[in-house]
Description:
One of its GO terms (molecular function) is ATP binding. Residues 5-227 form the ABC transporter domain. The chain is globular and about 50 Å long. The strands form two sheets. The chain has a six-stranded mixed beta sheet with strand order 5-6-7-3-8-9, with helices on both faces. It is α/β, with parallel strands linked by helices. The protein has a single domain (5-230), classed as P-loop containing nucleotide triphosphate hydrolases (Rossmann fold, 3-Layer(aba) Sandwich), CATH 3.40.50.300. It has nine helices and nine strands. The protein starts with a strand and ends in a 7-residue tail after the last helix. The chain has helices spanning 43-51, 69-75, 91-101, 107-116, 130-142, 160-173, 187-190, 211-218, 222-230, and strands at residues 5-14, 17-27, 32-36, 58-63, 76-78, 148-152, 179-183, 196-201, 204-210. The chain binds adenosine-5'-triphosphate.
Amino acid sequence: MTNLVQINNLTYRKNNKTILHDVNLTLSAGHFVGLAGANGAGKTTLMRLIAGVAKNYQGEISVNGSASEVAKKAVVSYSDELLGFSRQTTIHDVVFFYQTVYPDFSLERYQELAKFLKLKTDERLAILSKGTKERLTIALTLARQASLYLLDEPFSGIDVMSRKQIIQGMLNWVSEEATIIISSHHLEEIAHILDELIIIKDQTILEHRSTDDILEQEHLSIEDYFESLYAEDEDYD
Ligand SMILES: Nc1ncnc2c1ncn2[C@@H]1O[C@H](COP(=O)(O)OP(=O)(O)OP(=O)(O)O)[C@@H](O)[C@H]1O
């Protein structure tokens, strides 16, 4: 069976700086995967590469067996902070754009998500709070019927009570065959829904392990295990 994501010997440089070096990763369908790492470790960059947004890398990245950017964009749902829309654009206009561009975008599913996430249709992006923008990004990303969802720090501006509800809700919104990668600096909040954890350190994937394995073998919580791998670094905040 074809792996959902297959990365071989990936190295990515930008402006003469090596951001990721010799990354190898295999992901299969139907898992919740946490992506952890310190600030600047390369989490966003890795997501952009998997989504086909970042280009000019060395090595191989394939999704559902295809390395083409068009094929990746067709099966990977990734919304990077509503970039590209003017401040005057309304939520309704953004939704219409998604419907037009992505054949797998389900308006019915978006409406369910928007109701749950308390989004209004007529508001302009300019007046949305950080948390409301994040809610919109979550709704747009999950309203596609994709094979792979990438959520990059989706909850940083969302209040704690809503965060818990949204994290729980994600278990229902994403189909069992899909895989979802979530990056977060608050592993303790998402640890209970994760099947696997990826840790990026020193420009590469230091660990990719099942969370059950970490809990059983290391006798540490997911967040304590992550912190233990970074513990030797004095400048880690
Ligand atoms: N255009 C660029 N040119 C050079 N370096 C860049 C560029 N964009 C990002 N970087 C660097 O790439 C590294 C990885 O950045 P990235 O945003 O992927 O990290 P991250 O793990 O998502 O960080 P955070 O947790 O702070 O969001 C950082 O050191 C950053 O400074």
